[in-house]
Amino acid sequence: MSNETLEATPKHGGSDDGRKAAMALLAQATAQEMQQFWAQWNEKPGVETLRGPETGLVMIRGRIGGGGAPFNLGEATVTRATVRLDNGAVGHAYALGRQGEKVRLAAVFDALWQETAQRQAVENMVLAPIAQRLNDSLEGKRAETAATKVDFFTMVRGDD
Amino acid sequence: MYVAVKGGEAAIRNAHKLLADRRRGDRSVPAIRLDQIVEQLALGVDRVMAEGSLYDAELAALAVKQARGDMIEAIFLVRAYRTTLPRFGYTKPVETGRMAIERRISATFKDLPGGQLLGPTFDYTHRLLDPELADDAPVEAADRRIETAEQTPRVTDILSHDGMIEADGELPEGSETGDLTREPLSFPLERDLRLQALARGDEGFLLGLAYSTQRGYARSHPFAGEIRIGEVEVELDVAELDFPLTLGRIRVTECQMVNQFKGSSKQPPQFTRGYGLVFGQSERKSMSMALCDRALRARELGEDITAAAQDEEFVISHSDNVQSTGFVEHLKLPHYVDFQAELDLVRRMRAEHERASQTSDTQEAAE
After folding, report:
1. Residue in A23, A63, A148 nearest the CB of B117
2. Any idea where the domains of chain B sit in the sequence?
3. Which residues of B touch A81 (CB under 8 A)?
4. Do B277 and A94 touch (CB under 8 A)?
5. How far is A42 from chain B (nearest CA, A)?
6. What is the DSSP string of B84-137?
């Protein structure tokens, strides 16, 4: 697709931070979640796919010593899609992996999120359950890791 | 005159069919599924992702299955696959300091903030084969301990507060991050390119070199300052949005090796460092990488280059197992004409040798 179409993304009312957080959650949704949320969505808009879903690579970077100059660590597969709803809203999505349909639906929800009237529904029905699952998983892993923490103790030998 | 010899098509076709048959093996045994490989042979999958230099667990599992468990063949398959895809861009550097930690240990500080978190480690196991694993015995869920999240600062940051250790590596002002998948390597290399090569280098090769530095070839008195394994967020700047997009999370292993350094006329004595960062859970590889990184900084730190592990061209040129196997295994391909030429040459040399010895025999007899 041409750059003109990409630049035609309508400005949304929300902050970039809000949309960034929403897109981060959509990227980490499972394909099953996206399909389920779309199936449950009332009054589905007409969706035109402007780009993709297409799979490519990103070169992932690290930093020397953890915080120094960047270096190229290795690549990862990424899938992206851009859609336009029948009201003109354009949505984008990028996610690690090769799940085209998941990413296309993520782009649809990104477009819906940008409409003020739909945002709350996207937050409640889509983003909240994804956030909940990710948080539970993170907390679970943290607790499992914490159980392997070494509690050092000192052996005192003798009476004095 | 060059005569092409044709033939073998049927043999090759049948060989590949036989390969497919042997790969499947006994049909009464269920076929292995990719999710089983991803879940239960996870460290093998991680190695294929690291050395294949492509983070995609399902693809790596497919490669392992297709390669019948031959890791280097699987890595080769992954490398070949990546050439078929377009590149969308370079991500922002991952922040390992903000890792969701699954394991984190330090061999230098017992009581470091955040503690020693052993995680799912083979360390302290007795390396006795467990017959119970031969069957599908139920496995207990892991224990959990609920506690308030503690900060886990990097050991190297703790040490750097009083100047006892050098800073994270910087490159000369204005240098661009090198990418060996785009530009052929030309020696000498900057540290960024060396790290890229080491990150995808063969675990066994780097392990052997790392071991050699411990045994006295380029000794560097290493300590495992910190090893951490966990997930980091991946972010990408894209043209269509004016904020960096989160693409998801990947698991990496990071090793901060802390090494002794005497100091020089310009620098006071301080600890130097070697760095390792690898896709997936791969402690051995990240430690080997860090030891090799440190050894390869000999030139930068003004050390004598006396050992193989310090020789950048030697290490980096031979660390890639796809390149190595390509050149070693190409010896299997027909070299009939080459060999005929050599055979002819040896025949002629032998004939000359025979003539020469006959002549000298005659001379000796005459004397």
Report:
1. A148
2. 9-82, 96-120+147-326
3. none
4. no
5. 27
6. TS-EEEEBPPP-GGG-EEEEEE-SS-TT-TT--B--S--TT------GGGGTT-
Q: Does B154 contact A142 at a Cβ distance shorter than 8 Å?
A: no
Give the DSSP H or E segment for A129: helix A128-146
Give me the count of residues in chain B: 367
Predicted pLDDT at A8: 40
| Residue in B55, B115, B244 nearest the CB of A149 | B115
B192 reaches A (C-beta below 8 A): yes
Average pLDDT, chain A: 89
The pLDDT value given to residue A159: 62
Residue B21: its H or E element: helix B9-24
Chain A residues touching residue B200 (CB < 8 angstroms): 74
Low-confidence ranges of chain B (pLDDT < 70): 1-5, 262, 365-367
Write down the domain spans for chain A: 14-141
Pairwise CA distance, residues B258 & B274, whole Å: 7
Binary contact (A143, B146; C-beta < 8 A): yes
Tens digit of pLDDT for each residue in B77-99? 999 999 999 999 999 999 999 99
What's the gap between Cα B279 and its chain centre?
A: 10
Q: Give the angle B219-B225-B231 at the CA atoms, nearest 5°.
A: 125
The one-letter amino acid code at B22 reads R
